[in-house]
Design goal:
The chain has 532 residues and is mainly alpha-helical. It has helices at residues 11-25, 33-50, 84-90, 96-100, 127-137, 139-157, 160-171, 176-194, 204-213, 218-234, 240-249, 258-285, 296-303, 310-313, 317-339, 344-363, 371-384, 386-404, 408-419, 424-441, 445-463, 467-482, 490-497, 501-529; strands at residues 5-6, 9-10, 54-55, 58-62, 67-71, 77-81, 108-109, 115-116. Helix content is 68%, strand content 5%. The protein has a 4-stranded antiparallel sheet with strand order 6-5-4-7. It has a two-stranded antiparallel ribbon with strand order 1-2. The protein is globular and about 70 Å long.
Amino acid sequence: MAEATMEGVPLDAEQAPKEKKEKKKRKFSFPSAFTILFIVTIIAVICTWFVPAGQYSKLLYDADSGKLEMTSPTGEVSTLDATQETLDELGVKISIDQFTSGAITKAVSIPGTYEGLDQHPVSIADIPYSMVWGVIDGIDVMVFILCLGGLIGVVKVTGAFESGLSALTKKTKGREFLLVFGVSVFMIFGGTMCGLEEEAVAFYPILAPIFIALGYDSIVVVGAIFMAGSIGTTFSTVNPFSAVIASNAAGTVFTEGIAVRAFALVVGGIVFLLYLHWYAKKVKADPKFSYSYEDREKFNAQWELDDNSAAAHEFSIRKKIVLVIFVMAFIIMIIGVMNLGWWFPQMAAEFVTLSILVMFIGGTGKDGVGEAKMVDAFGSGASSLVPVALIIGLARGVNHVLTEGMISDTMLNAASNMVTGMSGPMFVICLLLIFFVLGFVVPSSSGLAVLSMPIFAPLADTVGIPRWIIVAAYQFGQYAMLYIAPTGLVMATLQMLDMKMSHWFKFVWPMMVFTLVFGAILLSVCSVVFAA
């Protein structure tokens, strides 16, 4: 009986408060990427029941007939001559060459043609279909990611990663942040030049193990790749998928305002690099400072390479050749995108080709791992990225719901009515915030450009400011949202690294606020200085 009590307090009574305390310590678990996108899809479906439906007439060039096709809000299609006179009559201030050359391939909204339509609600039962539709629509990106996974798998099984990592960590000892700095600058440059974002998924499997070995966390990995690329794209100078296509759709040329965007790029890049350096230094000094510290062991277990064996440290000629091929894969990819007009099918084919080459080099010969093991490694590598590929497809399903519910154009029309008649500075600040919201609804940079520029660009004329300021507002606003928007690329990134959105948000929100505040100040000044 004495053993059942302690200082007169029964053990059961003593244990009860402890159990309550343990329950109180349980933290809220942030939903996974899949759950977040599912919830967002449901919200989008609900919106189609309450937000009034409506559409603008859309204009598209048909290369086969050499004609312009105009689709009315009610779905009636009419054929028009592909001439500049036709565009002028419609109020579309875009050069006809942009249509006939193939520079603009998506339907362009025609100003002043918005019509309210009967409500077109999407059924809750259609949610699974929209998710499947999104996957099918994003199949080119998904195949690219799976082929990337296969290439990573065959390189990894050769042991080349472990050997190269061991050599690299020895050479960078004491200067660890230089590598983070170099990667970030490269991604900023890639973002501003060619919108290097979805392709950047390829760099995580290479750099995550290296950054772990250097003492950094998952936040630094995402910051140096995704965030740096996003900063470059936010302040795009010549990015064809953002600055160029938006300028074309606005009826101006991308060289207009390029000096201002370049200035913004330098300022934004410096601010981000200083912020990343501050955070990386803190994590390096005290790992518990990491915003994702609670998942540190899981992250390290997923990406840390096994370099305990003597064989892992042996950097043989075969492994060096394999690593050179692996690095060249991304150099060739970037050259292909920038100079050869490559897109995801070509990039995927390149990865498959180099995977076969690595299989031959690493699988044959005296010390080769064998053909069967190489083939299995390709399959395992591809399967490990299936969740990432699906996330991209599911995000597109949200946009499908908004399009089918015919409410995207309603939001665009309401936004244009909101800013009509404002003064220059107030106009651009409101427009910046409007693009911030629209970035969630239409996360595609080229998609939002062709939908919104023909509507908003003419409004710039009414307040006496150059149209290139509207292009800059579109870039700053949309990408500030895409730092966190679940409909964008960030969810695929977080899924790949198994990172919680709450951890990422804690790091990224200062940069989001900076982009909006700095963008608002810069655009306001420009609207006064360059006013007509």
